[in-house]
Amino acid sequence: MDKVLFDSEKGRIDRKSAGVEVNPFDLNALETAVAIKEQTGAEISVLSMGPNRAEEALKEAVARGADNAYLLSDQKFAGADTIATSASLAAAVETIGAYDLIIAGEMSVDGDTAQVGPQTAEFLNINHAAYVSELISLNESEITIKTSLWQANYSKSFSYPLLITVTKDINTPRLPSFKAKLKARKAEVKNLTLADIKEKLKIDKVGFKGSPTWVDNIVVPAEISRKTKVFSEEEKESAYHKIKEILIEKNLMED
Amino acid sequence: MKQVVINDLKKIVGDKWVDQNPERVLSYSRESTNDNYTLVAPEPIEGSVVVKAADAEEISQILKYANQEKINVIARGAGTALSANTIPAQESIILSLERLNKILELDEENMLLKCEAAVSLGDLNERLKSNDHLYFPLHPGDEGAQVGGMASMNAGGVRAVKHGIMRNQVLGMEVVLPTGEIVHYGGSEGKLLKNNAGYDLMQLMIGSEGTLGIITEVSLKLYPEPKANGTLIVAFASREDAFAAVPAILKKGIIPMALEYVEKDEIELAAADIGKKWPAQNGEYFLMIMLSEAEEDDLFEIGAQIDQITAEHNAVDMLIAQTTAERKDILEIRSHILPAISDKIIDSPDVTVPRSKLCEYLNILNELEEKYNTRCPVVAHAGDGNLHVIILKEAGSKPDYYESLKKDIYQNAVDIGGTITGEHGVGEMRLEYLKMMYSERELEIMEKIKDAFDPNDILNSGKSIIRK
Amino acid sequence: MAAKKELLILAEYSQNKIHPVVFELLNKGQKLAEKADLNLSVLLLLPKKIDFSELIAHGADKVYYMEDPVFANPDEFIYKENILSFLAKAQIEIVLTGATNFGRSLAPRIAAGLKTGLTADCTALDIDEAGNLIQIRPAFSENILAHIKSDSRPQMATIRYQEFKKGTADRSRQGEIIALETKIKDNPNLKDIKKLSDREINIAEADIIVAGGSGVKNGEDFKLLKELADLLGGQLAASRDVVDAGLIAKEYQVGYSGQRVKPKLYFAFGISGAPQHLAGMKEAETIVAVNTDPSAPIFNLADYGIVADLYQVIPELIEMLKN
């Protein structure tokens, strides 16, 4: 999503101004999947929860190598926070069927909470690895990834099933060929509604009603306007003093 | 520069805005030319002074003063031009426009943006981001380029196929004439779409390379932002196939935003240099076609036509980028070619030929490569017939055949109906080749026009046109 | 009388120390706990018990800990299982944790396990009149600040490092240290885990950047800037012209064609302020520019400018900071 408009009269986001493009982090997730497919012959399904116009993004995924596309869409999902979203996605995953590996982008560029991946893993009661920047190795029974935690890089090996969230460093997504995109425009996107996933849901309600958090208020911070204070060479000392003040004020002094 | 001149200039603009520090004067005397064409760009003559005027009024006073004292004045923008246009060839007042950096008005009714000369293309695009439906199409590569400079150099660049070059984007101007008068073109508001009264001095100003006046304000045409955008990358195994496909596409009535030609070595280097990856894996020669259409269906219908045409010309692959980020990446990589290869090249004449002659010109280039036993990579705004023929260094320095090869590149272009420069302009580096294009009489008329505007020849003297 | 409910800070113990964000959270947590009438407690999972008195000195009323070798590695599954087993029985109103990579990976699992709300990357926190936590975070490319509330308990939030100040230690404070039993010690799906390397430095993440431009005369002289950067715990960076001139490697480049950075404090030494460069750093919180040219465009953007020679200023700054 390149730009989102904030309507300062209504005091809220105009989401219609946002495109329905694939979240750029998700392209890295998809590229990871396609690379695994090329290596192992795996089948790729893509799943998105969103409005009907998100079909376009799913078709983009098909053009890039996904085999099946699912759109989880229902008026009742509107207003979902990350808990309600993850619970709905987890229920959809279990509805779709068996899987070995779930790959998600590190975060979305609009919400950028990075919570939906790990929360979905929790609802599915499977392991997850976040911040995956490399697939070190992979075979039918085990996968080894590189992740960045505790200010260090770790390698972790898991048996399946597993959910990973990948960073931009993991690959450079390839572009689809024109022919593939042309074909994918006619691809079938399977629709899932609340009724389809209800039996697998682990929370009582979805959408706004199933969301424990809500936005109580939105504040537009004042534009950073910089009033430059210029010190001449003779005033250097007071400038240094000011720098010291800033360091203390910002809590940037080393202990 | 004499101290008395310095003092007088300080009286006009204030002490703070007159700079004689030799290092900084040198820095303001150089252009991208000095970075990109180290071995062939002229070195600035020392002794100039940098003056940073606040507005047209101060510029007017400076020009009147310069007339009185007969001092050369060079208007200075971002220094991104590539023709040694603002490099002092004599002691000069380097008049930097950097303080004229305000965006004055976004006029949605008239679909134009009015801004001061030193607003950069990047700032302009940033400002337009907050607007939902209007945009400015031109993209000469470096987003640091300033609109005043872009107008005076008549910049072109990548996205010129559909909407044209700078000459087609300017609706109005404020200009300080060399004699000090402040004039407005495009009506007093600078907002006219048509004006057929008398000679069109505004169009004369555009592309005059700062020799006829100093542009202080520009009104730029904006366009409705198209909804369906896609960038195609078509890969070919041979140069000839790629170039032959260009007129074939355009002949069908397809008008892309941009139709660029790039080669594998250079584009991959450019991508690596900014930490990105060129998306095409197959092929050696590429057409990069930016499409902007009203509806997605149109985009794919045109794409399918291009797919068919390029297949007939032996294309090996065709990719499509539709996400904003990926389209932007491709444009960014394309724009970075020259900076990325700058340490490998001597020069890159931007000759332009009629589109139908692109293949013929390429055959000539092949012959030249053979004749001089070298390689001449090509980057081209192919849709405009505009080529950048790259002359490479040999063993890190200027090859002895450089002058002769360069002359062949220019002469052969002119011979098949082309020009020695499609967008970079004449500056100082292409002065001697002007005679390939114009008769004595034509050059004389240019000189008389210059005299009419600038009787004392104080404005960017010795650039752009030949004076006897 | 029922025991007071708690505000719990979930502490990250990594690289053999308590992550500094914990002390910032303790400082803020004290104020929040007071306002909401809660006890302030800390939960640590660690391979070997350490001295917890610093946590108490910085405001903790209670320190819960689990000690087990399994906590020597960052395995979210084992961590969350054990934390959930503790939270199931505790009276926790609010859970705060640092928005480190591990915190951002672990906290969502815990929230989902409890089916409670979680707000990511808060930059400010408050308590409303009813005693509820107000979680404040930037949203939509930092254009707006969202005030978020939760109607489930505990209320959970992750908080960015260096948003709050660390408080001063009060060694006279008393607190309770409570050992907890490690319930789950095995994760059958995790076959292997090992540390590969400490993470390489990335200027995009730095809080302080010390950048040099064409005012820096040669490559050697960047050592001077590096010394200042090291002293401040910051990162060295550069503008495009010095990178192009080969004085310093491309990875240090800030700008349109380099990295875009957003530190708390940005020093621009000898950088004139080409639009190329400004595009990469204009969003820094505070900009200090040092340049000999009073009309350098960087002074239009900077919060503080010094018209002087960087070769004079940097050694003097270093001198001042050392004292």
Automatic annotation (TrEMBL), chain A:
Kindly give the Gene3D superfamilies that the UniProt entry links to this protein: HUPs (3.40.50.620)
Q: Name one GO molecular function term.
A: electron transfer activity
Q: Which InterPro entries match?
A: ETF_a/b_N, ETF_b, ETF_beta_N, Rossmann-like_a/b/a_fold
Tell me the lineage of the source organism. Bacteria, Bacillati, Bacillota, Clostridia, Halanaerobiales
Under the heading CDD domains, the entry gives: ETF_beta
Among the Pfam families in the record, one is ETF
Q: Domain Electron transfer flavoprotein alpha/beta-subunit N-terminal, which positions?
A: 10-201
Q: Which domain of life is it from?
A: Bacteria
Which protein are we looking at?
Electron transfer flavoprotein small subunit
The organism named in the record is: Halanaerobium polyolivorans
Automatic annotation (TrEMBL), chain B:
Per the UniProt entry, the signal peptide is none
- Would I find Ribonucleoprotein among this entry's keywords? no
Q: Could you identify this protein by its name?
A: FAD-binding oxidoreductase
Its cofactor is: FAD
Answer whether the UniProt record assigns the keyword Ion transport to this protein. no
> Could you tell me the keywords of this UniProt record?
FAD, Flavoprotein, Oxidoreductase
The domain of life for this entry's organism is Bacteria
Q: Which Gene3D superfamilies match?
A: 3.30.465.10, 3.30.70.2190, 3.30.70.2740, Uridine Diphospho-n-acetylenolpyruvylglucosamine Reductase, domain 2 (3.30.43.10), Vanillyl-alcohol Oxidase, Chain A, domain 4 (1.10.45.10)
Q: Which residues form the FAD-binding PCMH-type domain?
A: 42-225
A single Pfam family it belongs to is FAD_binding_4
Which parts form a coiled-coil structure per UniProt?
none
Q: Which GO terms describe its molecular function?
A: FAD binding; oxidoreductase activity
PROSITE patterns assigned:
FAD_PCMH (PS51387)
From TrEMBL, chain C:
Q: Which residues form the Electron transfer flavoprotein alpha/beta-subunit N-terminal domain?
A: 7-195
Listed GO molecular functions?
electron transfer activity; flavin adenine dinucleotide binding
Cofactors required? FAD
Q: What is this protein called?
A: Electron transfer flavoprotein subunit alpha/FixB family protein
* Family membership noted in the UniProt record: Belongs to the ETF alpha-subunit/FixB family.
What Gene3D superfamilies does the record tag this protein with? HUPs, TPP-binding domain
- Keywords attached to this entry: FAD, Flavoprotein
State the source organism's domain of life. Answer: Bacteria
Extract the SUPFAM superfamilies matched here. Answer: Adenine nucleotide alpha hydrolases-like, DHS-like NAD/FAD-binding domain
Q: Name one Pfam family in it.
A: ETF_alpha
Biological processes, Gene Ontology terms: fatty acid beta-oxidation using acyl-CoA dehydrogenase
Positions of FAD binding: 239-240, 253-257, 270-277, 291
> How is the cofactor bound here?
Binds 1 FAD per dimer.
